[in-house]
């Protein structure tokens, strides 16, 4: 990490985000966005309800650490196995994360489909689920690799399903029911 990245990280840690907004540090840039839509929140709630609490922590406001990339995204949902992280802290190290979920908004399309896809693959997050209420689709990405076909970090396996179709989250032992997922109005 460069000196500029370190200064930006310190600045980000001290940033006071206005109520109703969310901020992320993505590749050295601070990205601020408005709070989510109700459809977005209901999708996240549905996923949380389907991931068994007995084995998994299902965290909705958790920053994830990617120190080599000057990134501290806050996915819409972070799933980590119980016992994978010891002690308190604002950041969960990327290697401890099993699943990240991003619910696409009109302003996050490029970030969710491209920037975060590369970031999560580079951080070796085993499962990245993109839920897109604009298109009514779920994109399940697995098998991260440091250099995909484009030479950039990517996921080897990609499975796209429509809302209403099941999404197998094999690593979690869950088949996600998406019948309650709704598109934006």
Automatic annotation (TrEMBL):
Source superkingdom: Bacteria
UniProt-listed Gene3D superfamilies: tt1808, chain A
Database matches in SUPFAM superfamilies: Restriction endonuclease-like
Entry's transmembrane regions: none
Keywords carried by this UniProt record: Endonuclease, Hydrolase, Nuclease
GO molecular function, one term: endonuclease activity
InterPro entries, per database record: Nuclease_put_TT1808 (IPR012296), Restrct_endonuc-II-like (IPR011335), Uma2 (IPR008538)
Occurrences of domain Putative restriction endonuclease (ranges): 12-162
Pfam families on file: Uma2
Protein's recorded name: Uma2 family endonuclease
Species whose genome carries this gene: Kitasatospora putterlickiae
Taxon lineage: Bacteria, Bacillati, Actinomycetota, Actinomycetes, Kitasatosporales
């Amino acid at each position: 990490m460069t000196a500029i990245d370190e200064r930006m990280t310190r600045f980000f840690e001290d940033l006071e985000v206005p109520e109703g907004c969310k901020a992320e540090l993505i590749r050295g840039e601070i990205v601020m966005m408005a709070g989510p839509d109700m459809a977005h929140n209901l999708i996240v709630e549905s996923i949380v309800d389907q991931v068994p609490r007995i084995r998994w922590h299902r965290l909705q406001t958790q920053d994830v650490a990617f120190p080599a990339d000057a990134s501290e995204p806050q996915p819409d949902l972070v799933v980590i196995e119980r016992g994978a992280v010891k002690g308190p802290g604002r950041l969960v190290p990327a290697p401890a994360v099993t699943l990240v979920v991003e619910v696409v908004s009109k302003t996050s399309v490029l970030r969710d489909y491209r920037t975060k896809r590369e970031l999560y693959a580079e951080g070796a997050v085993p499962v990245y689920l993109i839920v897109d209420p604009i298109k009514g689709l779920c994109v399940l990405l697995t098998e991260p690799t440091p250099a995909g076909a484009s030479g950039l970090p990517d996921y080897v396996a990609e499975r796209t399903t429509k809302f209403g179709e099941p999404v197998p989250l094999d690593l979690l032992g869950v088949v996600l029911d998406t019948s309650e997922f709704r598109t934006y109005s």
